[in-house]
Amino acid sequence: MSAVVAEHDDHHHDDHAHGPEKGFLRWIITTNHKDIGxxxxxxALAMFFVGGAMAMVIRAELFxxxxxxxxxxxxxxxxxxxxxxxxxxxxxxxxxGLANWMIPMMIGAPDMAxxxxxxxxxxxxxxxxxLLASTLFMEGGAPASGWTLYPPLVLQTGKALPFAIFxxxxxGISSIMGAINIIATIFNMRAPGMTLMKMPLFVWTWLxxxxxxxxxxxxxxxxVTMLLTDKFFGTSFFDxxxxxxxxxxxxxxxxxxxxEVYIMILPTFGVASTIIPVFARKPLFGYSSMVYATASIxxxxxxxxxxxxxxxxxxxxxxLYFMYATMLIAIPTGVKVFNWTATMWKGxxxxxxxxxxxxxxxxxxxxxxxxxxxxxxxxSDFQYHDTYFIVAHFHYTLxxxxxxxxxxxxxxxxxxxxxxxxxxxxGQLHFWLSVVSVNILFFPQHFLGLAGMPRRIPDYAVQFAxxxxxxxxxxxxxGASQLLFLYIVIDTIRGGTGExxxxxxxxxxxxxxxxWTLPSPPPYHTFTTPPTVIPTEHI
Amino acid sequence: MNEALKQKNAKLVRKLLLVAxxxxxxxxxxxxxxxxxxxxxxxxxKVASSAVxxxxxxxxxxxxxTVEFITSLNEAAPMEFRAxxxxxxxxxxxxxxxxxxxxxxxxxxxxxxxxxxxxxGLAAEYFKKTxxxxxxxxxxxxxxxxTMPVRFVVNPDLPKQYKTITLAYTFFDxxxxxxxxxx
Lengths: 539, 183
Hints:
Largest sheet of chain A: none
Distance between the termini of chain B: 58 Å
Oligomer: heterodimer
Radius of gyration of chain A: 23 Å
Number of helices of chain B: 1
Structural class of chain A: mainly alpha
Helix content of chain B: 10-25%
Largest interface: A-B, 43 and 45 residues
Number of strands of chain B: 9
Strand content of chain B: 35-45%
């Protein structure tokens, strides 16, 4: 580990056993994958609450028809910033954090392949998110065009526009560096015997996600750069007066945007495929089909982008192509759902918090998938487009899917990370409150959307009042319930139930993954000598 | 970490960085690709931005199509802009001329560009203009107003399902924009 040693003037020998830097500086200069994983996860959790607070503003304003608390412009800023913070500040960094912590331990590597770049990608992320957050305090307010940043509306943003665009650049650079690091780690750092088709699915899904990131983040960076030059340097990419076309932006954006939504869901699939077999006490059903399904979904994500823009005026052939291509995604996704179900079939299941969240994920993600299928039907999409139906759809695929699985991952690996057991009673309470309230929050939004309530508006017609109030109540319960998770995380770090956890934590988990063969908590440096036995129960 | 592994990593990183840079370029490559596709197919209501040659079509007297004319101003450009004819019943294949009136409401010289759009978009390729003020940037003297003609024909090959075509013009005030590309 010469990269680490280089920073210690007092260590002249290549010493694998030395511990972390003393004091606060440890967290600034660390190149240790576990430290950086922790930084990512803590940052993501903080941003989850920031983005959540913005959602609470939205739901408070929509509690009743009419204007109650905030100005319409600020409301629009809230919907925009909520999305950007949750996508780029919470969900993506949380999965990068998990990747940092778990991938080296799962494939028997001593660290990530590029430890210094790892540190840099985290701090660039922090800079990007802070820059984004700073736009809230600028003249003209934060971007209020929706997270898609469509021109010409987004070009009317005040002083914040260039800052928002640069923050997107920083977030993109951070993601690309993280992705390169993950690919290099998986390709070059696997322990002997850890062949690609023996890797845990979390590693597989992250490998594919990393390729998606490298392929599409630069496209998004290009799109916002075009916005920047249109606004300040007289180009006319999207300006009709100079021969440009605003619809072009939508094509470029969604060429990025559709793979982007899979960037948030593929690692989710990976964690679910890791947790469910352990608590079903069976090997994962259809390991290789899971790998191929993930790869298929990733491929399809590049050729379906225009289903986000059925209403822009496409020729019928285009509508039909994007409709059928989109429907095709249901096949590999269905393979996954059936595989998870088959894994649980006749398993000796127990229902600890990680498993509860995972089961809820399978059920609720499938519902989100089905509403996606409804919207893939081009003629009926005209009714759903830009209504609360789409809001309900993507929140079902993100909140009770990505967020629930992140919670599951937290419960599943916290005992490994800290060496302490979390409080299962509060964990169960957190789950039941979350799973009930998330449905109170988002299910009524299907009805609102089908009845024609448009998204991104601070006020609405009175016929939508009842379901909005119910949705808001669900939102407040869901938001408050997440404080339980915060409590559990802090409590577990500080000792939890006081019960000493074993190395494998969960019964027979050591058969499912290398991380469970290590002590709990694992020492600062692990697998400095590669493991000799590769667990294969997950295959 | 041994030297061999370091080199292997560096090689992979270079390749992956190259992919990222190439994809940044690909984002920009989508711009001409999109324009070419729209020009070929007439997608998105985009119409020819220069005059077409006078072609004599067989006039289809049996068929009547309504053409509507709509005008608007971008971002409250300081102008007056209206179509002198709001609606016209036409026969495919016959040439028509309609007038538009635009006036500069400021005391300064104004450069303005009108952008046409045809709806339904798929009818755009059958709507031919031999003369239009939208083909070039228009210069208005202070307070100047003028009437500008548009001469057009609808190709009789227009599919039967189209009974109404809407031609919309938006005037953009380009006075402050330098180096504007116009095509």
